[in-house]
Amino acid sequence: MLDFDLTVNGRRYPVRAEPRKLLSDVLREDCRLTGTHVGCEHGVCGACTVLVDGKPSRACLIYAVQMQDHEITTIEAVAKDGKLTPLQQALHEVHGLQCGFCTAGIVITFEAYLRENPRPTEEQVREVLAGNLCRCTGYHNIVKAILRVANERRDAQA
Amino acid sequence: MRRPKLRHIGAPIPRKEDLRFLTGRGRYVDDIEIPGALHACFVRSPHPHARILSIGMEAAKKSPGVVDIYTGKDLAQWTTPLRMAPPIEGLHPVEMTTLPIDKVRFHGDPVACVIATSRYLAEDAAELVEVDYEPLPAAANLEQALAEGAPKVDESLASNLVSVQRFATGDVQKQKREAFKVVESAFHQGRMTHLPIETRGLAAVWDEGRQHLTVHIGNQVPHPYRSQVAARMRLSESQVTIASPDVGGGFGQKIALYREELTVCAASRQLKRPVRWREDRMENLMAASHAREDSVRTRAAVTKEGRLLGLELEILEDFGAYCFYPANYLARVVAMILTGPYKVRDYAFEVKVALTNKCGNGPMRAPMAITSWVIEGTMDAIARELRLDPLEVRRLNMVETRELPYTMPTGEVIADITPRETLEAAVKAIDYAGFRRRQAAARQEGRHLGLGLCSVVESTTYGSRFYKAAGIPGSGHEAAWLRIEPSGAVNASVGLGATGQGYETAFAQVVADGLGVEPSQVRMQLGNTDVAPYGMGSRGARGGTAGGTAIFLAAREANEKVLAIAAQMLGFDSAEGLHLVDGRIEREILGERVKTDLTLAQVARTAYLDPTALPKGIAPGLDFSKTYDPPPMTYSNAAHACEVELDAETGALKILRYVVAEDCGTVLNPFVVEGQQHGAIAMGLSGALLEHMRYDEHGNNITGSLADYLVATATDLPGFEVIPMHTPSRGNPVGIKGMAEGGVMGAIGVIASAVNDALAPFGVVAERQPLSPDYLLSLLRQT
Where are the domains of chain A? Predict the structure, then answer.
């Protein structure tokens, strides 16, 4: 067992865990942030995606102990003061989620992606979204929601 | 029954469920914190087929954190076996213990369960359990399973052929003799798995004081599941609560009581402590439940013009090693409804199901998925062999609107469907007429386009009379309750387990119209067997028709009582001309609606807290329960059309356009319905293009990760163009027909149709799915 601190969503969490404990498990069990879901534990499905220093990363492929001195952001910190972000709002309005299990990973991935790439094409959106598996929606409405946010930003800037 | 004007049913209301999912505050099984819970991990067979000689647990028991280890012999004392023996002709009864005792039957079969203080420690110890096996020859595929002297998967059976059923009506042989031509086609669908992103898992909490078991588990059918758990643990149904929280996808995988789940329940009772289990993805792929894997052949006797005179069908299904369902259950429906919208009188089928040394099969979204591929592929084959236009062959054979209701040769009755209308709409939308020109022009440039068509008649909702007629024990009814609380708040429930279908929203819309309140005022309480009424759960596409109607009936009854009380409170003799609209009583005077001052909240207060003020003969409270048994079968329909481009160099396929025209009757919420259509098409395309659960010739599973078992990502799928053409059903008071599986059926069929159209110049026919680049290249190399 090791004792170390993690910074998650701007808060420090003292953690006592084995060095082999995955970041996904520590977030869920030790930090009690269960919004990060575990779908495959081998880095394919993307459900466990969190931000590490602002970059989307698979929490199931990282040991928590490696994350000392890094800033982690999870889905719980995306909506500020209970207000949905434009992406979350768009996913709600165009029915971009069904069972909701993969949703956190998709929101996290595209909050970061849209910051860097505010005007993606549909092809680019699909390329990035290919890193997240969704078994319910067929991706159609997820793509639609992401493009809506991108277009709204374009309109706002025009 | 008086039907109110629909104001909320059919409205595109974004889902109530979304907020918690979008903010990471859903509550899936693993999100439920249970102090002191132990963790289970299963030791699984590395052999496809082997005798268990001994299980050495000494080293494992000394491993840190281990509490105990259980084997099949332990479970046999605490639980009863599963006997699958419905009185169905041609189906052999089979039985399985909770965990195997003498032998394992597939690669991944569980042989022991380690209970430890953490999942990590349980997994460590599982590696130290030493099982001594005597490997046996395996039946790794249908050919091996049905060969002379094949190893028997289930030694209680005479052979691996667990079910054989035949049916014939009319005289197909005569039609074949007299036909212009007999067109033969073959269809091979690969083995797949449901792959919900949330794997199986549960938390079992035994309360020794109350002698009560609470099972937190994502499940589609909470009440039938409770019946199973209680019976197999020799508990009463009042000693078991199934609490199904948010569920990360089911698709048919979360219906059966699996052996691992029963083991965890028994372990909790034995240890008098909570025990939880979450399978990993490899276990989910190898050992949860598989689906499909059918080999199908049709022989169609046709006239020179392509008119279908007689049809023969043979299905051979690979069911895996264990029967969690009657083995004929999936394939037989295909045979029952095969002819769909096409007219034919002379029909015969033979359905054979065999056991093999693979993971057991179960229903996966559209258990009858192959149906539309087979009948539409047969239509394409007729057109190909007679050099006719495939659209004209379909038009020639399709039932006319005036001929409805039409009785299929199996006796199934289709009514209130619109196959011609949807077909023509899809054909128009995809520009069938213009396509042939574009296709010819593209071929000049060496590009290979293909256009596919696929009509779907989807059996959505099975009533009890269907089951009775098919000799299957079980019911097709659904149950609902509705309570208006003293404040006027409305709670309602139904026996369906939600796995993403938006029940909390769509059914609130049903209550809203049935009762006369705003949908936002209605809270659906789902998934807990102590709260919800005993219903048959969420499977097939029955939720809307069976569940929606049950809820609607409860809401109408509530409306009647509310208005009776309101009449007295307003000083009228009868409720005639009174309406409840968005929580307020309105009065109809000379055809005009006038709002009164009376609200539902005031009526509710009177009903609960001032019963002496109630009209004579009206009992206190506002509490209603209804059950509803739908007609024997409800059908909806759709027509799919898609355009593909085949790269003849690489075998790669690109879907250029995908159109579906759909009639699913009254729509409760168009967002939800369209989302279900997208999801079903995606699952169909994913299966048809990529998914393949593979075993080697010895029976070893070689698809244990998501790098091996491929599913469609956003770059594999097109956008979907959905054309709504809904006409209400007359079979139930709301007019619902149901949907959510037909998209799978249509996608599988339409992509095959399109690929074969693209392959036409090469003179080869794709008869297998998945339509992988490898497979398509192997066909192209034959030319």
Answer: 2-77, 86-157
